[in-house]
Design goal:
The complex is a heterodimer of chains A (428) and B (462).
Chain A: H1 7-17, H2 41-44, E1 55-61, E2 71-72, H3 77-82, E3 94-95, E4 101-102, H4 107-114, E5 118-125, H5 133-142, H6 154-162, E6 171-174, E7 190-193, H7 209-218, H8 227-250, H9 263-276, E8 283-288, H10 297-321, E9 328-334, E10 354-359, E11 366-368, E12 386-387, H11 388-399, H12 405-408
Parallel strand pairs in A: 1-8, 1-9, 5-11, 5-12, 6-7, 6-8
Antiparallel strand pairs in A: 2-4, 3-4, 5-10, 9-10
Helix pairs in contact in A: 4-10, 9-10
Chain B: H1 18-28, H2 34-43, H3 45-53, H4 66-82, H5 91-121, H6 125-137, H7 142-145, H8 148-160, H9 166-174, H10 177-182, H11 196-206, H12 214-223, E1 227-229, E2 240-242, E3 252-254, E4 257-259, H13 263-271, H14 275-288, H15 295-307, H16 312-320, H17 338-348, H18 356-365, H19 388-402, H20 417-425, H21 431-443, H22 447-455, H23 457-460
Antiparallel strand pairs in B: 1-2, 3-4
Helix pairs in contact in B: 1-2, 1-3, 2-3, 4-5, 5-8, 5-17, 5-18, 6-8, 9-13, 11-12, 14-15, 17-19, 19-22, 20-22, 21-22
């Protein structure tokens, strides 16, 4: 087992080690063990000259993105035969190789590909693919197709093993009230927020900043409180610290028109601002939903891909301008691709393997892996060639510089998709 | 009576007082009022528990679904008049069906508002609390069911059987249209088994994982073939039907019993497993008693369930009357769900006619979207309700309520810090927090103080 510590265990231990533990936020009641932890960005902020740590941005395409109409196998007749009404015409495919090209609405991603900043991993999936949204999404989030392991996320376990006492904003999901399972761990080092405005205590109408200060002081833990109340005060203190971090950044947000105005792009803009402001965050999680295109797919899927491409384009340009291009890696995934053959209502049903994108200044650009066969199918679906856990292992080991075995519950071969390769630290 | 359920008997050293009465009412209702607590104190523990458990057989009418029904009738009439046409090729007809779909979307919000309002106003709050419990246990989501009337039928089923007989409730759930749709048993047919319902029935609804094999799941799925819906649209999709020609009537072997089993046999076999009363007892104990209930208490509850033919009321009565229920470590050990938080706050602030639409949205933002449970396993509950975002969500909901932006609060009785804290929390506060609240009251009208009390960690628990 990695050095896991629950919030309660940590608190108990913290109290015995740090005299002020009872009245400090959870992440400040750190043990000697946690000092010098490269994961602890709250220390990095006060240690100038320390190298910037790499940042991961996970983009979830919810609903099952149609991989075949994203990276199009335009040289294959089988593709056009299977999709009489939905296939992207050869003439409009943005050709990347003599076999594959991008959907026309992904022009910005094609440009990143040409500029050496985008890698495609083809045919990503897992054994015995599950075609339920819920189950398959859970599999991608937990990295556990068997469902017998702990119900924690691969990123949550990353925080647990590397950084159980880091700042509460080591992971930030820009989503609704529920933390994505992928970010859920035992130590709870990630926050979820919908908007920076809502992520704060608002004094009542007519009351002033004195009330916010009173709230802050009311959340100071009192020794001897029952466990549930104690948990609440510590969570609230973490929340206040995170809120301050985020509002410092959000307060400066100005709309300079460089991002499209759809929600997905605005989430990415917030991520860029948080990174630029030096938030102690190593992993960001952003979603774009609506890919469940069972009927009348064409218009909807086109619009979604345009949002994806334009949003990522603005994000990457913004990062470059901020001098952050080489510090950030974006990965995209969806819970499954879609059936090869279109269905009777000009849509596609749930499928299996699909491509993933990796975007950043440090990727090995190009198309990796072989395109899955369009003939040798599994119940009408593409067979996977790359286990998604190999992509995770690559990101964990070669981008974030941590050992992946314990986090992923096994050894998965890494892929040759990144330039940057920090050695995984010695275990311990 | 097993030791774990030994009854609480008041004594001079351990009297039946406001603290215990308030605890009972917090657990069996939403945000008890001082008058209700005083009444329960006066009644004594036996009568107070009996009163909480007195649930009306006929809880009253639900919401009307006029708009949905008329939109459906329109689409039906149009379809009939057009004869045999394909919906997707007939724009006029497609528009009529889409109008019905949109009506269901509005109706589920109306249903949510109706339920929240009923939770706040009913004289039998335990019935609604149990309905909420079963909604998180026998989950179905509007996101898959797409029919507000079917969701209400399921909600009403939970309400009618709230503290009734678990076996009868289970039988109702197995025939419930929303459940049949949600877990795909409507398409489970001979030769093409769909195991979704068969699996969750055991894993989540009755026994818990580890008490059956994969083969039991497959065999059970065969037994459930043909338990389906009457037809494909509207009212026919809200009616159960057993279709013998879709049923696999071959021999199945399920949990060591072989025979031409069907769904009724599967339920009978499941109910005879010792794992089932344990699973239900454990879930009830986690909802009503403590996040980590004493295993001996759970076992005693399970025995009472099994020996009492799965009657729920006697078990709840034993729990609410037990000494164990009033132990200090049990009090305040549960985290209020967003629904409990909002409904309780509305009651305690005396807001007669709040903006339930906005409150339903705020409850969803705080993590509980009624009629849309996040997964088939329901809401995780407990400390999972609390994260950095929801800490602020709750405080900000309280701010809107207290400032009167969602309805007019009656806060005159909350104008002094000591009485306000006593009324809203029913417990003393640490001196440091008392002092901070007194300062807040000193700054103005008292609204700020009430807002802060409702933002306290002590107000998030019950």
């Amino acid at each position: 087992m990695p050095k896991m510590m629950t919030r309660r265990e940590f608190l108990t231990k913290g109290l015995t080690i740090v005299a002020a533990g009872a009245t400090a936020p959870m992440f400040l009641t750190r043990t000697a063990l946690a000092l010098n932890n490269p994961w602890d960005q709250s220390l990095v902020a006060s240690a100038p000259g320390r190298p910037d740590e790499p940042i991961l941005v996970v983009v979830q395409l919810g609903g099952g993105n149609d991989g075949l109409n994203t990276v199009v196998p335009f040289a294959h007749d089988e593709y056009y035969r299977a999709r009489p009404s939905l296939a992207v015409p050869q003439s409009s495919v943005l050709r990347a190789t003599d076999e594959l090209g991008f959907h026309p609405n992904l022009k910005p991603l094609k440009a990143l590909y040409d500029g050496g900043q985008l890698a495609v991993v083809q045919g990503v999936g897992y054994p015995n693919p599950n075609r339920s949204h819920f189950r398959s999404m859970e599999i991608w989030h937990t990295a556990d197709p068997t469902g017998v392991g702990p119900r924690t996320g691969w990123l949550g376990r990353l925080f647990d093993s590397e950084c159980p006492t880091c700042a509460p904003t080591t992971g930030i999901a820009i989503a609704g009230a529920e933390m994505p399972l992928a970010m859920q761990g035992t130590a709870g080092r990630a926050v979820v927020l919908e908007s920076p405005q809502a992520f704060a205590f608002h004094p009542i109408q007519g009351a002033g900043p004195e009330e916010a200060e009173a709230f802050r002081r009311l959340m100071q833990p009192v020794p001897g409180e029952e466990p549930t109340v104690d948990f609440l005060t510590h969570t609230a203190m973490d929340a206040l610290v995170a809120s301050d971090d985020i509002r410092k950044v959000a307060g400066h947000l100005t709309d300079d028109g460089s991002y499209p105005r759809d929600p997905f792009s605005l989430k990415l803009r917030l991520v860029a601002e948080l990174i630029a402001a030096g938030a102690p965050t190593r992993v960001y999680y952003v979603g774009l939903g609506g890919f469940d295109t069972h009927a009348a797919q064409a218009g909807r899927h086109d619009t979604l891909l345009a949002s994806l491409g334009d949003g990522l384009d603005a994000f990457v340009k913004d990062l470059a301008q901020k001098g952050l291009r080489d510090r950030v890696l974006v990965i995209t995934f969806s819970e499954f691709g879609r059936r090869v053959a279109e269905n009777g209502s000009a849509g596609t049903d749930h499928g299996a393997a699909a491509p993933m994108f990796l975007i950043g200044g440090q990727v090995s650009p190009g198309i990796h892996g072989a395109h899955p066969s369009l003939v040798n199918l599994d119940q009408g679906d593409l067979r996977y060639g790359v286990d998604f856990r190999s992509v995770y292992a690559t990101v964990l080991e070669q981008w974030l510089g941590v050992k992946s075995d314990a986090i992923l519950g096994g050894r998965f071969p890494t892929l040759d998709v990144l330039k940057r390769r920090p050695a995984a630290p010695a275990s311990g | 009576m097993p030791a774990a359920l030994e009854p609480y008997v008041p004594s001079p050293q351990d009297p039946w007082d406001e603290s215990k009465a308030a605890h009972l009412l917090r657990r069996t209702g939403f945000g008890p009022l001082p008058s209700e607590i005083a009444q329960a104190v006066q009644a004594g523990p036996g009568a107070a528990v009996a009163s909480a458990l007195a649930l009306p057989r006929n809880p009253g009418p639900g919401p009307a679904f006029d708009e949905v029904l008329s939109a459906e009738a329109n689409a039906e009439a149009l379809h009939r008049s057009l004869g045999r046409v394909k919906v997707k090729d007939t724009p006029q007809l497609r528009a009529a069906y889409q109008a019905a779909t949109r009506a269901h979307g509005r109706a589920i919000m109306d249903l949510t508002m109706w339920w929240l309002d009923w939770m706040a106003k009913t004289k039998a709050p335990l019935q609604e609390k149990l309905t909420l419990f079963w909604h998180g246990h026998f989950t179905s989501s509007m996101g898959d069911v797409h029919d507000a009337i079917a969701m209400y039928k399921q909600n009403d089923l939970f309400r009618r059987h709230a503290a009734g007989n678990f076996a009868r409730l289970l039988d109702g759930v197995a025939r419930d249209p929303a459940m049949l749709k949600y877990l795909d048993n409507d398409v489970n047919r001979r030769g093409h088994p769909n195991e979704n319902w068969a699996r969750e029935l055991m894993e989540l609804f009755t026994m818990g994982i580890g008490h059956y094999t994969e083969n039991d799941v497959l065999e059970s799925a065969r037994a459930w073939t043909g338990w389906t819906l009457r037809g494909g649209r509207f009212e026919d999709r809200r009616a159960f039907d057993f279709k013998p020609r879709l049923h696999d009537d071959g021999i199945k072997t399920f949990l060591d019993t072989a025979g031409k089993l069907d769904g009724t046999d599967i339920m009978r076999i499941i109910l005879a497993q010792p794992a089932t009363p344990r699973w239900i007892a454990s879930k009830l104990a986690k909802f009503f008693v403590s996040p980590n209930p004493d295993p001996e208490l759970v076992e005693a509850m399970a025995q009472e369930l099994a020996s009492g033919g799965y009657e729920i009321t006697p078990v709840l009565r034993s729990v609410f009357q037990s000494r164990a229920f009033y132990r200090p470590e049990v009090m305040y050990s549960l985290v209020k769900s967003p629904t409990e938080y909002v409904v309780g706050a509305v009651r305690q602030l005396g807001i007669e006619d709040p903006d339930w639409r906005r409150l339903a949205q705020l409850t969803e933002e705080a993590g509980q979207h009624l009629f849309f449970p996040p997964t088939v396993a329901g809401w995780h509950g407990g400390t999972a309700w609390i994260n950095a975002a929801t800490v602020f969500n709750r405080a900000n909901i309280a701010g809107l309520l207290v400032s009167g932006r969602l309805g007019t609060p009656r806060t005159s009785s909350l104008s002094m810090p000591e009485t306000a804290a006593a009324q809203l929390l029913q417990r003393p506060l640490p001196p440091a927090r008392q002092a901070l609240l007194a300062q807040a009251y000193g700054r103005g009208t008292g609204q700020e103080g009430v807002h802060l009390i409702m933002s306290l960690p002590e107000y998030q628990v019950c």
